[in-house]
Write a structure and sequence with these properties.
CATH superfamily of the largest domain: MFS general substrate transporter like domains
CATH class of the largest domain: Mainly Alpha
Shape: globular
CATH topology of the largest domain: Growth Hormone, Chain: A
Distance between the termini: 22 Å
Strand content: under 5%
Number of helices: 18
Order of helices and strands: HHHHHHHHHHHHHHHHHH
Radius of gyration: 22 Å
Number of strands: 0
Structural class: mainly alpha
Number of domains: 2
Largest sheet: none
CATH architecture of the largest domain: Up-down Bundle
Oligomer: single chain
């Protein structure tokens, strides 16, 4: 690997325009991460008549597909950077393709039957996942190329998380509202798919312009960063894991935390229905968890500037652990106080989203000192795959907990009463399980050794 072409990223303050353009990309991230999770399984089971197990397999297949293709897209994005000096091509392709495939995912009519419907949704959703990864993997790589400043990366990613949080709220409430806007559910899902897909795609297309800003501030990587075969592309990710101790520590922490937050999000509907005794309460649980992040993210940016990202990250993790653990008391005294604990977890959630994303560019810069530039996509491909695994296993952990505690499944319109052990299992999956996982992530975070002085030294030598 040649290391002659070093990045020449400015360490001055990023312009508000650059920060805004980059943050708008989280319209795509928030929409894609939120809406299918809320409505796709229900669309399959209650609109197309697909069996629940098959519906779950369709959603899981898309997650597995993401894990397989993300490292390949990361390596291909590095090749594109080496060849053209920009990652924008992949991002634009994903932004233009996603609205079509997202709309097609929800365009299948019930008259086609459950088998044909399931196959068509599977193919359309796999294409949607591919289009999203074409954008997301290079998008996550850009902060390392936009600035070498320790604090500017925190500022950039902090505003991105503000938009991400607003996007989650927008799609979480607006998507189902569009679906229910008319009397015809088939047209309602189609309208939701078209409108949401367009908003997601436009946000992604706008954010792709920051790739040109990064290209102007980065020397083109040498062609030695290129691996040609699929095996070499996967192996480049494993080599990155092997040589970068900070990356292993940060990725391990992030995956455990994705698993922790994934279990809490997956358990929210069950808590609403069987602990708070209202299906509609899931909206308030969701808002209580995500809403505070909208206000708290700038605060975590300030804390990180004063004490360092890794310490602020640890503080957010401890706060989330305490808030989640406090929810165990819902076994004995369920009530509206749950929203308070969830809101505290939401404040911590803002830091859990923004701080590791701001630390990842530091890890990439650290690796450049020994391995040369042009491999950010390799790192972000592995990172995105790890995030996908964490969130996917979160839902699996909740399902296993419910199964072990005797949860009784039902069909629409039927009334059942859950055994006491099942309700306890629901609370455990919403409290102790995420708390234990978050506490475990603190052990891996202790192994993260990069500090502000390390990154500032890199920035000074690159100037």
């Amino acid at each position: 690997m040649s290391t002659e072409a070093r990045p020449e990223r400015a360490s001055v303050r990023l312009s508000p325009r650059t920060i805004l353009l980059y943050a708008i990309g989280s319209l795509g991230t928030g929409g894609y991460a939120t809406l299918p999770g809320l409505v796709l399984t229900y669309f399959l089971t209650d609109n197309l008549g697909v069996a629940a197990l098959a519906a779950g397999l369709i959603v899981t297949a898309a997650k597995i597909w993401d894990v397989l293709i993300d490292p390949l897209i990361g390596a291909a994005s590095d090749r594109q950077l080496a060849r053209t000096g920009s990652r924008r091509g992949f991002m634009v392709t994903g932004a233009l393709a996603l609205p079509l495939f997202f709309a097609l995912t929800f365009a299948v009519p019930p008259s086609w039957g459950p088998v044909a419907g399931a196959i068509c949704v599977l193919l359309a959703f796999l294409a949607t996942a591919t289009a999203f990864s074409l954008f997301q993997v290079p998008y996550v790589a850009l902060p390392a190329e936009l600035t070498s400043s320790y604090d500017e990366r925190t500022r950039l990613l902090g505003w991105r998380v503000v938009v991400l949080t607003a996007s989650i709220l927008l799609f979480g409430a607006g998507g189902p509202a569009l679906r229910n806007a008319g009397d015809d559910p088939v047209m309602g899902y189609l309208l939701m798919g078209i409108a949401s897909g367009l908003v997601i795609g436009i946000g992604m297309l706008i954010a792709s312009r920051t790739a040109e800003v990064a290209a102007r501030g980065t020397a083109t990587a040498t062609a030695a960063a290129v691996s040609s075969t699929w095996r070499d592309q996967y192996m480049s990710g494993f080599r990155a894991l092997g040589r970068s101790q900070p990356f292993r520590a940060l990725l391990g922490t992030f995956v455990l935390q994705a698993l922790a937050t994934g279990t809490m999000l997956a358990g929210a509907q069950y808590v609403a229905t069987w602990v708070l005794r209202s299906e509609d309460a899931v909206t308030f649980v969701f808002v209580a968890l995500v809403g505070p992040a909208l206000l708290a993210t700038p605060g975590w940016t300030v804390i990180a500037r004063r004490v360092g990202k890794e310490r602020a990250f640890a503080m957010a993790s401890i706060l989330f652990t305490a808030a989640a653990a406090s929810l165990i008391f819902a076994v004995w005294t369920p009530g509206a106080w749950i929203y308070v604990s969830v809101a505290v977890a939401g404040i911590a959630y803002a830091g859990l989203q923004s701080l590791p994303m701001a630390m990842l560019p530091d890890v990439i810069s650290h690796d450049e000192r020994t391995s040369g530039p042009g491999q950010a996509g390799t790192f972000t491909g592995i990172w995105t795959a790890g995030e996908t695994v964490g969130f996917a296993l979160g839902a699996t952990a909740v399902s296993l907990t419910l199964a072990m505690t005797g949860y009784v499944s039902t069909v629409a319109g039927a009334t059942v009463e859950q055994p006491e052990a099942a309700v306890t299992g629901i609370v455990l999956s919403f409290s102790i399980l995420p708390a234990v996982l978050m506490a475990a992530s603190l052990l891996t975070l202790r192994r993260y050794r990069l500090r502000r002085d390390d990154i500032d030294a890199f920035a000074s030598s690159d100037a």
